[in-house]
Structures are given as C-alpha cells and as structure tokens.
Specification:
two-stranded antiparallel ribbon, alpha/beta
Length: 300
C-alpha cells in the first residue's frame, strides 16, 4: 500500500489538432469550447476536484492561448468593472486561481511518452504523478481521476483508465488483458496497441488518463536514449516493460466519456453538457424538440 500522495498532474497539449482544421490553424484544439468552457478547462477541473493543484502543461508552438486562458485578464476585468459586471469578474478570476500552473515546451512532436518526459524534471525521485491527455472528457459524479487515485492508494502501483469499447473498434485503442481483482479493477497482464479485431485480448481500452510512478519515467528516459530517428515514444512502450516485473492496475471508471479529439465526440459532449447547463438547458431542449420533427423527415 502506498502512502505517497499524488499532488501533480502532467497535461500534454502540444498536438496540432489536424482533425479540427481549419479551426485549429489559429487556436489549440484544447481551446475548442463545450458550451462556454474550453475542453482543457474540464481536464483542469477533473484534476482540481481530485485534490491536485500543481498542473503542468506540456505545450508546443501555437499554444499560447492556453497560457492566456489560465492567466489573469487585467484589461478584461477593468472593462467588466466599469460595466458593473462583478459576477463575470469573479467567474474569470476563478479560472486563473483553480491551480498552480506551469508550462514547459515539447520542442518537437516525438510521441506522448516524449511529451511526458518534457515535464519529468518537475517530478521528484520516488514521487508518483497523474497524466491527463486533453481529449478525454468524463462526466461523472466522482471525477475519473479521483476514482483512479483511490485504486492507487490501495495497491500502490500505476493505474490506467479503462473503458469497454465495441469489439469492432478495438483496433483503434490500446487493449488490455487482465484479471478482475475487485469490481471494475483489473490487474493487467498485457497491453496490445491497436490490435486487429480478431486478435484483441478483450474490449477493455486504455483511455487518456494515467497514474504513473518515477520508475515509469525512468523507463521512458532509457527508451528515448535508444530510439531511432523518426520513431515516436509512447507511454505504452514504458508500461509494457514495467509489466514484465511489476503490476499495473486498470480501473473501469464510472462516468460518461467523450472523445473530444474527434468532431463527433466534441459534438456529443456539447449536446450533453448543454442539456445540463443551467443557463441554456431549457432553450436548448426546446430547440431539440423542434429539431427532432425535422430529423424524422431527413432520417426516413
């Protein structure tokens, strides 16, 4: 059992977001909005609501908007103050005070493992940390990361987030095999990256949420030294090596996940959260009712 508290999270956000071009030509994909909050805001909320305040973004060129979003907006606050909009001042100031933010650059895109290593110098020897990738937004009563932290605190070994996916889509994910040691918690035997549908060991897919320890970071460092030019370093590469000698656990978390790295996933998330949004949900429901009548015509 581990007594080491997780206080830090690494959020790699250096990708180009090519699936959302041309919108991502001038803004990071993580700043695309779900109703009135960018995708990255949901990830930060997940970390903060899981008890983590030290948040490191691994950025790249063209990601300055993320830094600006989590910074104070003095000029905007002055304009809002003159207009008497104190409630809005409070809401935007809260964004900047959600956590303690650090930014490091991944100079070139060499895989998500390399992105994590860009922030490894901020993790002390023997210290675990969380990793959240900017595509996976989960709506749950208990944050998905907090659920994972509970598993880590019990077993003391790395934890990955798992979700059941349709068998015909297992070739799109890293798929695990393992033994269920308690409800929804699996001790993982193997991880296969994007297996063919017929060779997939299960339909339990790894999604972009991890709790790793310092040894995983050390394995990534060794792998990077030996990687050939042009090859990408993935976190799965390190997990596979770690699994040879020590256990990794997977949690099939409770909650609804949205893949906001795809157009359809972002659209689904927008509809889902709009229906829960106190300001717009009633008007949006009325719109959907009107739309449903037209959809019957188009879908027949």
């Amino acid at each position: 059992m581990s007594n080491t508290k997780i206080t830090k999270v690494i959020m790699p956000v250096a990708g180009f977001g090519t699936r959302f071009l041309p919108a991502t030509k001038c803004q990071p994909k993580e700043m695309l909005t779900i109703v009135d909050k960018p995708v990255i805001h949901f990830l930060v909320e997940e970390a903060v609501n899981s008890g983590i305040k030290d948040i490191t973004f691994v950025t790249g060129r063209g990601k300055r908007a993320i830094e600006d979003y989590f910074d104070y907006a003095v000029e905007l606050e002055q304009v809002l103050s003159i207009s008497g909009k104190r409630d809005l001042i409070s809401s935007i100031r809260q964004v900047s005070e959600m956590g303690r933010f650090t930014y490091v650059r991944q100079k070139e895109a060499h895989g998500n493992g390399d992105a994590i290593l860009s922030a490894a110098h901020l993790i002390h020897r023997g210290e675990p940390c969380a990793v959240l990738f900017g595509d996976d937004v989960v709506d749950s009563e208990i944050p998905a990361l907090k659920q994972m932290i509970s598993v880590f605190e019990k077993y003391g070994d790395p934890v990955v987030a798992l979700e059941e996916v349709p068998h015909n889509k297992t070739n799109l994910y890293g798929i695990v095999s393992g033994k269920e040691v308690e409800k929804n918690v699996f001790q993982i035997n193997s991880i296969v990256e994007k297996p063919s549908v017929k060779n997939a060991p299960s339909n339990l897919a790894v999604v972009g949420k991890y709790i790793i320890n310092y040894e995983i970071l050390s394995i990534l460092k060794r792998l990077r030294q030996n990687f050939s030019e042009g090859r990408e370093l993935g976190i799965t590469d390190a997990l596979k090596i770690y699994l040879k000698d020590k256990p990794i656990y997977g949690l099939k978390f409770t909650g609804k996940r949205f893949d906001c790295g795809s157009k359809i996933g972002l659209l689904e998330a927008t509809v889902h959260f709009a229906l829960k949004h106190k300001e717009v949900n009633q008007e949006f429901k009325a719109f959907l009712k009107k739309l449903s009548k037209k959809l019957k015509y188009f879908l027949t």
